[in-house]
Amino acid sequence: MKEQVFALHVATRNNLLTYLENVTPEKLAQIPAGFHNSIWWNIAHCVATQQILCYKLSGVKPVVPEAFIETYKKGTSPDGHVPTADEIQELRALLISTQKQLEADYERGVFANFTPYTTSYGYTLTCIEDAIHFNNTHEGMHLGVVIALNYFAK
């Protein structure tokens, strides 16, 4: 796969990190009127979804705890708690480590099997390359939501 695909993933993750590192914990947890979730949830959801799309659909054990995935997967909602400094640092570390791990695992060929999956976007993933490309689209969409949430949160 072209290195640009992973470079785009790094760029999106770096943009998400900017919000995670520069927004107050209270603002990270806020759900403005008209929205269904928070900046915090959207960023954590990106990590959880990457693990589902790339690892679980390939039959590979995710590199983040199952409880994390269950908390932030599609269909979940924020629980309203304000993240602690330690939780913010943990999510920061996951944003960086899961990007690097995905690239390394792809290069090592660990994603040999893949279960086709049609996303709610209406796009069918048939192989790991599809999943990695779509994951970039998915994270870009959530970055847009994070930008809007930051604008409307007080």
From TrEMBL:
InterPro entries, per database record: DinB-like, DinB/YfiT-like
Pfam families xrefs: DinB_2
Domain DinB-like: 11-145
Protein name: Damage-inducible protein DinB
